[in-house]
Amino acid sequence: MGRTPLSAAGPPAGLVGQAGNFGFSGTVGSLMEFLNLTLGQFLFLLGSISAVSVALYLLDRTRRRQIVSTLRFWVVPGQPAPVSRRRKIQQPISLLLQLLGMALLLLAIAEFQFGGALNKRRDHVLVLDTSAWMAALLPNGSGNTLMDLARANAIGWLRAVPPSDRVLLVRADGLATPATSWESDHRKVARAILESQPGATALNLSQNLEFARDLQRESGATLGEIVYAGPGRISAREANNLTLPNLPAFRVLPVDDAVENAGIRSLGARRSQTSTGAWDVLVRVRNYGLRPRVVAVTLNFGNAPQGNHPVELAPGAEKETSFTVHTQAAGILEARLYPRDAFAPDNYAALELPAQRSLHVTVYSDQPEALRPALASDPRVAAQFRPTREYKPNDDGLVILDRFRPETRPQGSSLWIDPPADRPPIPIKERVEHPEGLRWTPDLALTEGLRARNTQIESASVFEAGPGATIVAEIDKGPVIMSRGNMVVVGFNPFAGSMRYELAAPLLLANVLRQAAPDVFRDVDVGTQSAGAVSSPIANEVDRKSVEVLTDSGKVLPFNIRDHAVQFFAGEASRVRVIAGNSERVYSLTLPEMWDVKWTPPATARHGIPAWNDTIRRSRSLWPWLALAGLALLVAEWILFGSYTTSRIHIVKQHLRSAA
Amino acid sequence: MANTPAHTPIIDREFLERLERLAIHWQRSFAGLVGGHNRSHFAGGGQEFLDHRQFHQGDDLRAVNWRAYMRLDKMFLKMFQIEPRVPVRLLLDTSVSMINGKFEYALRLCASLCYVGLVRLDTIEVLPFAGELHEGKACGGGRQRFSPLSRFLETLKPSGSTNFLKVVKQFLNEYPQRGLVIVISDFLDESGCEKALQYLADYGNELMLIQLWTDEDRTPRFSGEYDFIDAETSARLRIHVDADARRQYTAAFDKFAASIKTVAFRNNGRYAGLETSVPLEDAIFGSLLKSQVIA
Q: Is the interface score ipTM higher than 0.85?
């Protein structure tokens, strides 16, 4: 079986057996090695034992004095007594056998083996894909998932790993999570593999492989393989930024994922621009399969059906369908996709819609016709026009005083248009006719979008700049629009004369309205997000100790605050609430993070389960033979040259008997 | 006050009781007095009838068989058997070559034979020797005389070198009366012992040679470089012992033992070779019975 590209269809490639390249780069060189001892330790031990053995040998072979009853039988009658010349080593073969036997035993203890670096103990990293897509059911109807297939592949590879090699399991989805430490006990790794479950995020392959490489380098042992087990489905963002680290021994255990699936890509809601109290809802669906499909998208709000749209999807196509939901109340918006398919998590999405609010504006004017169109253009504004004689100082919302000065100032926000010179809210320095050179103060919320300089104004009051007042616009003679607190004072009537036809007038009014009630005019664009990394902005003045990130179930998620944003990672589909001070933001992370493209492994990667375990095991089983050979040599030496012959044992027995 | 250590007898009581049914066996008769259980084939003034012979002048008329004379008209003289009182002499080797347990073994063997003889009313005389004949101990008259003999044996210590020829000459001078001579020794004499033993036999003594050796004496287990020292002469021999040397040694020893045996048999004596590794009880009721030293 040759190497099969991951993108090819068909059964999983190399599940049972492509040996691949056996050796590991950079380790071929030495022809033998010791598993239990270093060469230095082995030589030291061998030298020590040999020295002791030789010393004992020479001591044993030294001439001994013995008193005997007679010498007559040692001498052959008629011949002179033999003269024995002492030799330093009397029985060199005996010494040689002893040294050789002990060397063999020491080699057995050191687990000597041929093959050298090829058989060194290695550290492997198994990167097991636990992305959301791994929960997809296999099309064979067995009820097994891609995760089951990946687990089986991983277990098969683990069985092929030499028993002494260490393995570390990394569960790979959006984050790289080490599931075990460096384990020589492969049962623990197998247990961790079997306990691995699909997450809710897409695979971040480059991060996971880089993490695996770093782990391997930091282990300090001989580098083994980095093995990826999974289908290799990654997001488009990941594919565009994919930079795989240099992996000298990279293996892929592919998982065939030819699964027909259609799912919701996103669910979004936007406040309707045309209708008060309505939401425009967009549901984006995609066909991940290879066959065209027709799916039905149903929308519920508060368990009330809102619509059902059939969508026809070509293979790989992505389409949007829109709904309109009329509600001003907050509630849960749910989208479902039918029929159910192999991958259930992306058939449902939920969104929490906030309540829609409006700004109450009370206009005190004796000539309201000029203001009426400007206020009626925005559905979020509920304007009420009253004559000046009906003034009440306690109106809520925004109060617009059109060329009118009440005896008592409004308690809330107020917009003064061309106030009379008699006791104005801000002292008037002078009245200027046809002023020119109107300039807007930049970087103010009230001047956002206002850039016009040659605005034609009939006449304007020039205010005196005082403490606590902000100049919004000015001419050469002084400020003509100022703000102080929640009060904005305009020294001219922007809805009269030639200025009423310019864009500056409604823009200025819109900015005033937005300043009075920013949350009402904030663009509400809510949508589901995929689980994974989320960044939630917070205000500068928020106390960081008050920040909490909670799931619906009350589980506390770890987070980090950086650049005025709360950053957290949601590993599973849920709604997450970010509480910061007095504000609360809800994230509907109900959709799993899906893939966009299939990754193709590099050509240098190996595929399938290797078959080098048996080879290594055979070479490592050399030590019993070494031990047997060493023992055989020692026994032979004991029989041939040993002092403890049977007769000597007999003498010892005799002495013992007499002593007894 | 220090406790006096308990006296351990050479032979325990149980073994002595087993020895009582044995007797020292004589093969030859010697002229002597009545005594013991061994019968003399010499006629004399004994109690038991032995034979008739023709009457000669001068014979004692009291021994004439008058009944035969009445019937045959010839005078026959009745001869009676005399019983010997010839002592059993044990020559015990006390030289320093009796090492490695041989001396203790010899003492116990000597005591056993003494007890056997005393029980049968033999007269026993123990004569220790090495380079010369030492003062011995004689006793007789029953088992109650064994204790002094036992204490005598306990006083003996190995010393000196063996000189059989000198010892035999001294023995023949001091004990001209012939009798049974039991020699307990390893017979290791640098000048040889065969000639001396032959002298002993030639003077009419019945030889009973008991040769003792240890395992090490016959089949040494040494291997390697050895500096052998003769226990008697302190002569040294540096030698490398290997299997071939050991084999030659054993052959030489067997040849030596055979020569001792030959001397004994050639003179109608008896020979027993005992290895000290064999328990004394087994040796007495085995080898010695088989070689008819005792019966």
A: no
